[in-house]
Amino acid sequence: MKKLLLLFTLLTTQIFVFGQTKDPELIPVNDRKVGQLGYYLEDGTNVVKPQFCSASYNTNGYYIVSKAEHKYTADGRRIEEHIEGTEKYGLLNSKGQFIINFDNDYSSIIVSNGVIEVYKNGFVGIVNDKNEIITPIMYEDINPLNSSSIIATKHKMTGVINSFNKIIIPFNYDVIWIGVFEKNKVHNFIVKQGEKYGVINHKGEKIIPLSNNKIIHVTPSSIIVEKDNQYGILDYKRKVLLAFKKYDNVEYFGGNEIKFIKNYEEYIYDTKGNFIRKQKIEFLEKSAF
């Protein structure tokens, strides 16, 4: 009897899991009679009545909306352009319900990499999906890589925080660039202080001390450096893997290939400085069609 009961429990659990469906997409629609936007489902069912000046499509499971004040003509027609400085932003969930309403007076809302950024009076902070402020609205700029690594600027200095405003890397640098970012995890950052460049890890520990050598990119095993208008590759102990040479540009977008460009040709090396191949840029353009 116990085996039958267990089998029934497993079957009903499977039915429940496979029967679950995601919330349907909300589609913005413009009601020309009132001159405002709302949302409806693909079957035409209205979900949110027209009331917005702007309404986004699905943005990481959220929908960004705005509302503003307008002037009217003498015969009562609304002028489409809103009054400057009056636009406020809100956020809806996938059911069309407000997470952030217009009473918060946010001048902008951005959803990026699972982080809800809110802007007010020229500053930015972070809220959760209950509209609770978890990072104070006190930063001049933020760049969320994920909820654990957010490059932030305060008093014109840059550091790294998490979404709960814990300082991961102190605000000691003029600029911090993302370095190695793989599988949603940050490994290293490029930092600049004055005219000096260095590399730090996600804990703020120095991997490459600050120096006058301009660090262009970092890979999991090496750094790409510009020195006296020449490019080369070093390892993290600053041993030369690829000797410095004059190139027009260098490109690295992750993976194992670094492209050095000169005279419309690409010289491609791996991240350890080993030559892979050379190819003309024209060939790449033709192969794209």
From TrEMBL:
Q: Mind listing the UniProt keywords for this protein, alphabetically? A: Signal
Q: Mind telling me which Pfam families this protein's record contains?
A: WG_beta_rep (PF14903)
Entry-linked InterPro entries: WG_beta_rep
Report the domain of life of the source organism.
Bacteria
The signal peptide, as residue positions, is 1-19
Q: Which residues form a coiled coil?
A: none
Q: Does the keyword section mention Signal?
A: yes
Transmembrane ranges, per UniProt, are: none
Please give the PANTHER family that the UniProt record associates with this protein.
Answer: DUF3298 DOMAIN-CONTAINING PROTEIN, GLR2918 PROTEIN
Q: What is the protein's given name? A: WG repeat protein
